[in-house]
Amino acid sequence: MTTPTPAALRPRMAFSWLGILPFAGFALLFLILPTMNIVLGAFRTPSGDFTLDNVARLFQGAIPAYYLISIKISLASAALGCLIGFAVAAAVTLGGLPRWVRGPLLTFSGVASNFAGVPLAFAFLATLGRLGLVTVLLKNWFGINIYAMGFNLLSFWGLTLTYLFFQIPLMILIITPALDGLKREWREAAQILGASGLQYWRMVALPILFPSLLGTFALLFANAFGAVATAYALTGSSMSIVPIVLFAQIRGDVLQDPHLGYALAFGMIVVTGIANGLYIWLRVRSERWVK
Q1: Which residue, among 53, 82, 92, has the nearest Cα to 209 in the 3D structure?
Q2: What is the CATH number of domain 61-124+152-290?
Q3: pLDDT tens for residues 18-36?
Q4: What is the share, in percent, of the chain residues with pLDDT greater than 70?
Q5: How wide is the angle at C-alpha 213 spanned by C-alphas 211 and 215, nearest 5°?
Q6: What is the reported pTM?
Q7: Domain ranges of the chain
Q8: What is the dihedral of CA 187, 188, 194, 200, to 10 degrees?
Q9: Which of 113, 137, 201, 252 could make a disulfide contact with 169, Cβ separation 3.0–4.6 Å?
């Protein structure tokens, strides 16, 4: 059996690169070029001259408050999504639940993590709106009026609750492989040395999982910070989060200022870029332990 020479492998390797051309073209047209256009537009005037005024306006007026409320919602949904998603994934992976539960749960998580936009907003309005199914049932059957108690779906916690529908499944999908990577030998060694279950999690498992947990938190934060369709369909203009304000600046008839919109989008790119960069760096660190 003869080994192919490097010269004979070159055409085969060149041909194999053709497989990624559709992906490269898609990324170029719908990701790289639009991002470059946004970045350039943030530093241009309507006449095309270079300026820093658009970026400077991000620190003026009510715009910092828009970023602050967006960051708060993203932090709240990411934290709750991590806590609940980790508990569910740990119960399925390490708990005593039947093995057949794992498959349907991961399948549902894969679908639910991508369920957003107008359908998700309509689903929550039909469920927890003022005339939603759960709201009416609680009021008629148990005499509980959640809106009289202060709940409002079109509010900070209402939007956070809606975001949890795709944040929790995303957490489950990402953290499950990390939980699978915890070796049984580590728990057995801890038990042999006299460690309790709580000590094993506090001194062995959680330190190993910490990069994955923190990285997933950063990813969930970026996922919520960039969500616009769900928030706009659910709250309209009643909540001034950055994606909705950005939409109003670019597409609105009254507040239209495209270059300020470019600057708002540039600020979102910076925030989500930092979060995603942190996720990638921490994921690389966590994979060392999984291996």
Answers
A1: 82
A2: 1.10.3720.10
A3: 778 888 888 888 888 988 9
A4: 90
A5: 65
A6: 0.85
A7: 19-51, 61-124+152-290
A8: 0
A9: 113
